[in-house]
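ok posting inputs for the adenosine-5'-diphosphate job
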Amino acid sequence: MHIQIENLHKTYRRGETELEVLRGISCEFTPGSFNFILGPSGSGKSSLLYLLGVLDQATSGRILIDDSAIDSWDEATCNAYRKSDVGFIFQNFNLMSNLTALDNVLVPFLPQGIDAEITQRAEQLLERVGLKDRIDHKPNHLSGGEQQRVAIARALLKKPKLILADEPTGELDSTSGHMIFQLLRELGQEQQAIIIVVTHDERHILPEDIVHRIEDGLLIDIDEAQQSV
Ligand SMILES: Nc1ncnc2c1ncn2[C@@H]1O[C@H](COP(=O)(O)OP(=O)(O)O)[C@@H](O)[C@H]1O
Ligand SMILES: [Mg+2]
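and the output
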């Protein structure tokens, strides 16, 4: 998958007030790239992820996915994209309280049927996020960080071409956080996925990563700035 963003604007309207959050963002995300989006609270990081996930509409500008403008997509195309192509790792992880960790990971696959192969992959993912011995636990017997790791495994099971992660390690201690980033990097490489991570935690950034910062509604590529130092 290849993503191109052209002059993207997002303005929220509440009654009389307008809040211009994104003010003309242009950028590109290429297969296999690991991208960070940094920026202060309220700068529009989550808003940008919602637009990329086609969970919200831009005020103006375009997002092109493999040269196809998403504002030309019909509802079925949007749904297929969200369901098959995008792995969402958001803060409100919405696990089902009556299901075990394993079944929660498998939920998105229920409509098409669960076979032994997909179950094994789900178990492997839970193992890779460090929950091998929590597979049969229900969410209320898991810590916040463990629940978040279940949600991460759930997002990765479909082998998404795009992973959108909003503060994915916010609830995690640094060891688990490191493990999650390692897993995202491995899977991103294996599947040549685009990974876009919003975070405050700059400790996980590697020299080869692409780092953007949202400032005053604009996206600034800070790689070049860093490299020229
Ligand atoms: N649905 C909405 N309606 C109105 N304002 C919103 C909405 N969503 C976000 N905002 C506002 O837009 C700004 C950017 O929000 P957000 O994208 O969540 O920032 P970040 O993720 O960088 O903290 C904030 O001031 C927030 O209050
Ligand atoms: Mg946010």
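notes: The domain at 3-227 is CATH 3.40.50.300 (Rossmann fold). The chain has one domain: 3-227.
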